[in-house]
Amino acid sequence: MEKIKVYIFNGACRAAAYGIGTYINVLKEVLKKSNIDFCVVNLFEKCSEIKESTEKGCHTIDIPYVRFNNLNSQKHYSRNVAYLLKEFIHEDKDTKLVFHLNFMTDPDFVSSLRKMFTHCKVVLVAHYTNWSFELMGDEEKLQKIWNKKPRTRNVFEKQIIQSLKTDIRMINKVDKLVCVAEHTLRTFRRFTEIDHHKAVVINNALQDEYQDIGHDAKMKLREKYRIAPDEKVLLYVGRLDAVKGISSLLEAFGNVVKVHPEVRLFLLGDGDYTSWLQCAKDNWARISFTGHLEKEQVCDFYKMADLGIVSSIHEEFGLVAIEMMMHRVPIVVGDTGGLAEIVEDNFSGLKVPVCYKDEKRTLDAEVMAGKICGLLEHGEQAERIADNGRAVFLKRYNADVFASKMLDLYQKV
What we know:
Layout: E1 3-10, H1 19-32, E2 37-45, E3 51-55, E4 58-64, H2 73-85, E5 95-101, H3 107-116, E6 121-126, H4 130-134, H5 139-147, H6 155-173, E7 176-179, H7 182-191, E8 199-201, H8 214-224, E9 232-237, H9 246-259, E10 263-268, H10 273-279, E11 287-291, H11 295-304, E12 307-310, H12 319-326, E13 331-334, H13 337-342, E14 350-352, E15 354-357, E16 360-363, H14 365-377, H15 379-397, H16 399-412
Parallel strand pairs: 1-2, 1-5, 2-4, 5-6, 6-7, 7-8, 9-10, 9-12, 10-11, 12-13, 13-14
Antiparallel strand pairs: 3-4, 15-16
Helix pairs in contact: 1-16, 2-3, 3-6, 9-14, 12-15
């Protein structure tokens, strides 16, 4: 069997600290259990010089951040990184080099890698796209911008199209495109031709960490966090960004607490709290913003939660949703993007439709409140959804399923 060496590239972006970071950690564990050698290359690191290290069976190369002064800076950085890596990576005719990229919008980087490593294979994973976040996942709006004559587009619209076209250029340069959800591939195929054999959908996954700790242990955890035994815990986990639907969630919670005064909402994650605190002002006594928590603390809240809410207006995949399903937490999610694919309505979760308010995409807060109240009032339904969600996780989103597909991809690319 041909030897394979995988280089996993990570960029210092906001998503790298969340979904992509988790993805890479799962991938590292998969590769550690295989016979495939691998190395993680971290770009834009906060260090003064290139650093090479090995820790816990993982070889890592850190490459420093450089400030971009003009439009050509990123191209120069990409070219220089490829030159620098030539000092650390050696081509061997008996070993297949696979460069696994986890960021979009940099076709020059692919060109630079191919120039320096003539026999390499390049795999690109589309975890997110800048244009989809800017448009809150509004594909119809993207289509309208695309259909406009170039001279009639405003500055924002030109940036959107430029970002999309740059992603398409990058896709055309790689050997394999991996989309984390079906909708991502459908969107790309709507705007460009992609070879049927070039693209594949491989969902994100997690190592199963569920523990059924029992009633008494849950009560001890609640005591630890000063949560009363009779309080119902609603849980949000993620960045406090507009695209995550925080305003709809807080509005919905305001309606829920009128009917169920015993509920408490915990929002676990970083962000700009100023506007969200203002949105929550009528219910401050029932809402807690925790900021960033360590993994162990997040798991504590999963063990205590009565209900999880993933209120995103757009989500390329929806890693938090499968994390909640793994921990057997019944969930309410936005019917959008990857979340729409992960959750089967009224089986593994409840879906809230996307609507438009002041010509902007949002979630229907009234419907969300109704779904939340329904699960709080019907314990049997909540238990059924929790059980079904966990079963779906084990069947589709367990790391073992992901491992089989990724290892097969590396062999065949």
